[in-house]
Amino acid sequence: HVWDSIGCMGADTIDVLLDTLPLVSIGTDRTICPGSTTALNATPGFVNYLWSGGDTTANIVVPAGMHQVVVTDGNGCSNSSNLITISEFPVTAAPVISGDQTGLSSSMTDNYQWFLNGAAIAGATSQTYSPTEPGVYTLAVNDVNGCGLILSNPLNVIFGIVAEDIPQGFSPNGDGINDNFEVRNILQFTSSTVTIFNRWGGQIFKASPYLNTFNGTGENGNRLPDGTYFYIVDPGNGDDPLSGYLIINR
What is the pTM for the complete model shown? Predict the structure, then answer.
């Protein structure tokens, strides 16, 4: 109501509408894998979005931490969402493997896969494994929270050379089968030495390290005749050398 200077009154009315504050949600607290991210989706349909990390879209991808968004609707009204916490699962300890050529074992009790030189070993899914050849063994276990595989320490397994690893003969006839004097497991020994003698004790071949290259050719480059020869195989690791005979039979 208003009055003028001579006492006359005038009146008018106006309707004031009270807009409700926008309601926005971004979900609930959650836990994610260490070092990963997760998507947050705010309620759609608002004019502006401003996340606590500075993003300005309705849907964002975030790492672990505390997150919130402020939205503004078409009437210029703003409101904040709920505050959520994104946590990380604890890092699962890596398994520890130990052992030697007689057997390997793991410090963990389930979810295994054994590897040799980076390749999965078929069927090797137990806590223990009996290696069948030398090389670098590792073990992978499934993270209990579904966060992928966790690798163990690498373990280099060396097989000692025994008499059964040395052939008693070979046939260097060029057919690609049994053409070389191949000592099983010797390639893992970088200081190995193999010496070959004829029946009179004369040295006809020597190599260090030995790479399974003796093909029946003597040190003079001549092809050796078929017959019986003698070897000394020294792994070079402190083990006693092995000696015996071999037969060249083409």
Answer: 0.58
